[in-house]
């Protein structure tokens, strides 16, 4: 009976454990890396590359696991989910229109002069959540957001 049983502590079993892990992610990894390289090579614009890198970064989808507890401010309304998913998938969020600052806003909701306004937009969204009114910043880039989804 001893000769027919495999000794777990044998050198052969240890080599198998080290070189051939039994977990499925170990076996999937080479295929996933090949697919990632194929997708990465097909990206043609910097925004596509940035979207791909952001979506494939660790913990990029963790917001989907947040419990929707309204009393803690963790409940997202339908519009926030629509914009979040649209940004993640690179979908159009609004119709092109002219921003209140005079620049053209594209379908992703970005003003053509987005560099100077990016910080303003961030502040304009963050400050009111702290209960402080935001004034004097250009944060009107989502004025036509709902028309794109109709």
Describe the protein's architecture and organization.
The protein has 150 residues and is mostly helical. It has a domain at 92-150. The chain has helices spanning 11-19, 24-42, 46-56, 78-89, 114-129, 145-148; strands at residues 97-98, 104-105. It is elongated and about 70 Å long. 6% of the residues are buried. Residues 137-150 have low confidence and may be disordered.
Using brief descriptors, characterize the structure shown.
150 residues, mainly alpha, 6 helices, elongated, disordered C terminus
> What does the main sheet amount to?
2 strands, antiparallel
The topology string of helices and strands comes to HHHHEEHH
Q: Can you count the helices?
A: 6
Strand order of the largest sheet: 1-2
Instruction: Please state roughly what percent of the residues sit in beta strands, choosing from under 5%, 5-15%, 15-25%, 25-35%, 35-45% or over 45%.
Output: under 5%
SS-derived structural category: mainly alpha
Task: Name the helicity range.
Answer: 40-55%
Q: Outline the low-pLDDT stretches.
A: 137-150
Mean pLDDT: 75
The radius of gyration computed from the alpha-carbon positions, rounded to a whole number of angstroms, is: 24 Å
| Strand segment tally | 2
Specify the overall morphology: elongated
Distance between the termini: 73 Å
Oligomer: single chain
Task: Write a short abstract of this structure.
The chain is an all-alpha fold.
Question: How would the blueprint of this fold be written?
Answer:
Layout: H1 11-19, H2 24-42, H3 46-56, H4 78-89, E1 97-98, E2 104-105, H5 114-129, H6 145-148
Antiparallel strand pairs: 1-2
């Amino acid at each position: 009976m001893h000769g027919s049983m495999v000794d777990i502590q044998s050198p052969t079993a240890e080599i198998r454990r080290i070189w051939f892990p039994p977990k499925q992610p170990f076996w999937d990894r080479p295929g996933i890396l090949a697919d990632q390289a194929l997708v990465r090579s097909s990206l043609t614009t910097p925004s596509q590359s940035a979207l791909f890198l952001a979506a494939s970064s660790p913990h990029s989808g963790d917001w989907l696991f947040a419990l929707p507890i309204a009393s803690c401010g963790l409940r997202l309304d339908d519009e926030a989910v629509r914009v979040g998913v649209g940004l993640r998938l690179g979908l159009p969020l609004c119709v092109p229109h002219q921003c209140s600052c005079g620049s053209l806003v594209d379908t992703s909701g970005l003003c053509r002069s987005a560099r100077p306004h990016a910080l303003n937009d961030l502040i304009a969204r963050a400050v009111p959540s702290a209960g402080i009114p935001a004034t004097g910043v250009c944060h009107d880039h989502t004025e036509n957001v709902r028309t794109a989804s109709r």
